[in-house]
Amino acid sequence: RAVASSKAKDSTVNAVVDFNGFSLRNAPPTNLGKEFMATFRNHYAGAIHAILLVDAPATFNILWNVFKPLLAQSTREKIH
């Protein structure tokens, strides 16, 4: 699991989250995920260009459905 980021020409942030090897057995605690999302919301609001999810397993949808309501619609549209 890895997270990387870069800045686009307009200074917005592109984040890549690599889920290679991810499973529910090694998933981080729910609170950590909530803190991750809060950090993006509090420190990068308006600065996110795109969040790219790589190799997200089918089980990711379970976690996505937990965290999705915590995000603004405009942010959800940036997640690919």
Total strands: the figure is: 3
Structural class: alpha+beta
* Radius of gyration of CA atoms, rounded to a whole number: 12 Å
Helix content: 25-40%
* Average pLDDT metric: 80
Strand content: 15-25%
How would a crystallographer describe the biggest sheet?
3 strands, mixed
Shape: globular
How is the largest sheet built, in terms of strand order? 1-2-3
The H/E string reads: EEHEHH
The N- and C-terminal alpha carbons lie at a distance of 17 Å
Helix count equals: 3
User: Which ranges are low-confidence, i.e. pLDDT below 50, for 5 or more consecutive residues?
Assistant: none
Task: Describe the overall structure.
The protein is an alpha+beta fold and 80 residues long. Helix content is 32%, strand content 24%. The protein is globular. The two termini are 17 Å apart.
Write the layout of secondary structure elements.
Layout: E1 2-7, E2 13-18, H1 30-43, E3 48-54, H2 60-67, H3 73-76
Question: Could you name the key traits of this structure?
Answer:
80 residues, globular, single chain, 3 helices, alpha+beta, 32% helix, three-stranded mixed beta sheet
Summarize the structure.
Helix content is 32%, strand content 24%. The chain has 3 helices and 3 strands, in the order E-E-H-E-H-H. Strands 1-2-3 form a 3-stranded mixed beta sheet, with no helix packed on it.
